[in-house]
UniProtKB/TrEMBL annotation:
Gene3D superfamilies: P-loop containing nucleotide triphosphate hydrolases
Protein name as catalogued: AAA domain-containing protein
Region (Disordered): 365-392
Source organism superkingdom: Bacteria
AAA+ ATPase domain residues: 389-572
Length: 729
């Protein structure tokens, strides 16, 4: 039986044990139970790991988890502990309350996955991104898959390759990758192909040797069980220097002389080791233990166990040989599977970690305490609300749904569904502030400044007082309610002078500079002289219209401190949740395909200008509100006449010839018939020049500019719109 067939069978077994219908009645012990191999979390992390690994990191990624070590731990504003469980404080005061929130989140993800709604899954705040997409992958419709088993952005960005992917969110990246899946390919086959493609291009693997000449058998066992990679800092040929310099997350395989032992991943910097002067150690996490440890007898290259080297890089040309002679025979995994195991984000661990239990080669997941260790997440970006803070900018051309998405986000995360439910303890009903940046907006309005006021006690004399700006007021409110998330929403963030408006706050907004973070900073404000810092539960959300200013021109300091999420025109006609899916305008026997129309117009705009000046789908979504037929055609006429053509005039600076190209008018005219052209081009014949300038005008007709005019009849002619994407032969 092939390995992929085994994985499909295991997937079927999981769905038989954990069908979507069971999730709503799942109990806490069924979700997480230390030592049990039947729980939902054990399935996700251990039994289904070959279909996309979520190993590593904190067990708080599950929202709540069962503690194997039941010693007393103090709770705080972020994390809560009982004797049996640990969970995010924001999820509830008791384990039962927290689990109720977790279960609702899992039910929601599974339903959205079955519906193929990637955008809705991406917008959810429950759980971390990796766990959320892992759940979605296994509850999708396998016959019409919407998710590939890659749950981090870096490999997906590399696979897409387009510059549009650089700042794309996970939902967009999943859509881009799935769009390239051959129809005949199964989702696991396609996922394996994607991992193999990425690993061949990007995987970096090193050899590390704890050789018999430098380590006793006891030392080899001790360092292996303690998950410590040990090496002398002055090892020749710069090997010691490279051991220090390679970053956390670097992959390596460990061998004892000629005997392969494990594949690991560095999780700490190099620090002095007790082995002796000059010796260094780095912590690592075990990705895979060797299935056999007999001497390696194949290649004698520098990276092989046979070669007399301590720390050596497997070159890209040798990855196939490494895979064939060492990785698969000794560890039972391929480069693609190794890439999947290593593809998750790492959390730095203690410089001197406690020894981990030796793992049984036959069942690596036996030690639930090791695999679900009680690691606490980095507090620099996890406030008491229990989810990570973010600075984010939604960018794209006009009409791509930036404001709509922001409105949905605010309703979901930053305001009470029923304002009457808000009280002094739970926080205000509306937990955000909304401003629009413009050329005159400044530091005084945003942070603090002097404001003129009339002094009632001095006969109307004007005096000046220091007033807090909108952002400073929001931060003060957020401090009073650490269990809630607040948002500073900035519309048109690229239209203001960011350096002038933010001032010294450009440093404070970084997540690791927030209150309570590892590198927290407090600065003195220039007007009030007060010490000021930013609470960890304040998100900063901006929108940016790329037609006003290209993303490339955005202030560099701003780019470094924000995530950028692209909102591009969505003219898909093959997904149920796409905004224009199935949208047609029908009149008699003529049918206007709205997705095809928008796609072709935007393709032409990208060729003539750029993708920042395309036309958003939101201009056309209003058509759904009109009954199909003449009324919908009339609404389409209004949209083209009052919105789209004026927008094209602005884009092309009234270069009507280019506007005609975008509308396909140059391909519609047949002889003198321009009835389906939106823009009619007219030459000035000699008789017209005489009428305008007299007989002795001295002008050549080919030197005069064409005149352009709107063709009123075309706006209610279905063939004028059809001709945009399907020109007459």
């Amino acid at each position: 039986m092939s390995d992929l067939k085994k994985q499909y069978d295991l997937w079927d077994e999981f769905l038989a044990v954990w069908p979507e219908s069971r999730l709503a009645t799942m109990t806490l012990d069924e979700y997480t139970k230390a030592g049990s191999k039947d729980t939902f979390t054990y399935w996700m992390e251990a039994r289904l790991d070959k279909m996309g690994s979520i190993w590593g990191g904190s067990s708080f990624k599950f929202g709540i988890y069962s503690r194997k070590v039941t010693d007393e731990k103090p709770s705080d504003a972020t994390l809560r502990y009982s004797a049996e469980h640990a969970w995010y404080t924001a999820l509830g005061d008791t384990a039962e309350q927290a689990f109720l929130q977790v279960r609702q989140g899992i039910v929601r993800i599974a339903r959205l996955a079955a519906e193929g709604d990637r955008e809705a899954i991406g917008a959810l705040d429950i759980f971390g991104s990796v766990y959320r997409w892992k759940i979605a992958f296994h509850y999708q419709n396998r016959q019409a898959p919407k998710f590939v088993n890659i749950f981090t952005r870096a490999p997906l960005r590399a696979l897409v390759g387009d510059s549009a992917s650089l700042n794309a969110d996970m939902a967009s990246l999943q859509r881009m990758v799935i769009a390239n899946k051959p129809p005949e390919s199964g989702i696991l086959e396609y996922g394996q192909e994607m991992w193999e493609t990425w690993s061949r291009q990007n995987l970096v693997v090193w050899k590390l040797s704890h050789g018999d000449g430098s380590f006793t058998k006891e030392e080899q066992k001790q360092y292996r069980e303690s998950a410590l990679a040990v090496m002398h800092g002055e090892t020749g040929k710069s090997q010691g220097k490279k051991f220090v310099e390679v970053p956390n997350g670097t992959l390596f395989y460990l061998c004892n002389s000629n005997s392969p032992q494990l594949v690991g991943q560095f999780t700490s910097p190099a620090l002095p080791c007790s082995k002796g002067p000059g010796w260094l150690q780095r912590s690592f996490r075990v990705l895979k233990l060797a299935q056999r440890t007999d001497p390696y007898t194949e290649s004698n290259k520098g990276w092989s166990p046979r070669y007399n080297s301590t720390f050596s890089h497997v070159g890209r040309p040798d990855l196939a040989l490494f895979n064939q002679t060492l990785l698969q025979p000794y560890f039972g995994i391929s480069l693609a599977e190794l890439a999947a195991l290593a593809g998750e984000p790492l959390e730095t661990v203690e410089a001197n970690p406690k020894p981990v239990d030796d793992i049984d080669i036959e069942d690596e997941a036996d030690d639930d305490e090791q695999k679900q260790a009680e690691e606490e997440p980095d507090p620099s970006s996890v406030p008491a609300s229990g989810r990570r803070t973010f600075n984010r900018i939604y960018y794209g051309p006009p009409g791509t749904g930036k404001t709509y998405q922001l409105d949905q986000l605010l309703k979901q995360d930053y305001q009470s569904a029923n304002p009457a439910d808000a009280d002094a303890a739970a926080g205000p009903a509306k937990r955000y502030r909304f401003v629009t940046f413009h050329q005159s907006y400044g530091y005084e309005e945003f942070v603090e400044g002097l404001r003129p006021v009339l002094d009632a006690q001095s006969a109307g004399q004007i005096r000046y007082e220091i007033r807090a700006g909108v952002f400073k007021e929001l931060c003060a409110e957020a401090r009073r309610f650490p269990g809630q998330h607040f948002a500073m929403v900035i519309d048109e963030i690229n239209r203001g002078n960011v350096s002038k408006i933010f001032g010294e706050l450009i440093t404070l907004i970084e997540l690791d500079k927030r209150e309570g973070a590892a590198h927290a900073i407090s600065l003195t404000l220039p007007y009030s002289g007060e010490a000021f810092s930013i609470p960890p539960n304040v998100d900063i959300i901006g929108t940016m219209n790329t037609a006003d200013r290209s993303l490339a021109l955005v202030d560099t300091a701003l780019r470094r401190r924000f995530d950028f999420v692209a909102r591009m025109p969505d003219s898909r006609d093959d997904e149920k949740n796409a905004p224009l899916n199935g949208l047609r305008v029908t009149l008699d026997t003529r049918s206007i395909d709205i997705p095809a129309l928008l796609t072709r117009m935007n393709q032409r705009i990208e060729s003539l200008y750029d993708r920042d000046h395309t036309i958003g789908h939101a201009y056309l979504t209003a058509l759904r509100g009109a009954p199909d037929g003449m009324r919908r055609l009339e609404l389409l006429e209004e949209i083209f006449r009052n919105k789209i053509i004026p927008l094209l005039e602005e884009y092309f600076f009234e270069d009507w010839q280019k506007i005609r190209l975008v509308l396909g008018d140059n391909q519609k005219a047949s002889g003198q018939d321009q009835s389906t052209c939106f823009i009619i081009a007219e030459d000035d014949p000699e008789t017209e020049l005489v009428n305008l300038f007299g007989a002795n005008h001295g002008l050549e007709s080919f030197n005069t500019r064409k005149r352009f005019s709107l063709n009123e009849q075309a706006f209610l002619n279905p063939d004028a719109y059809i001709g945009i994407y399907a020109p007459a032969k």
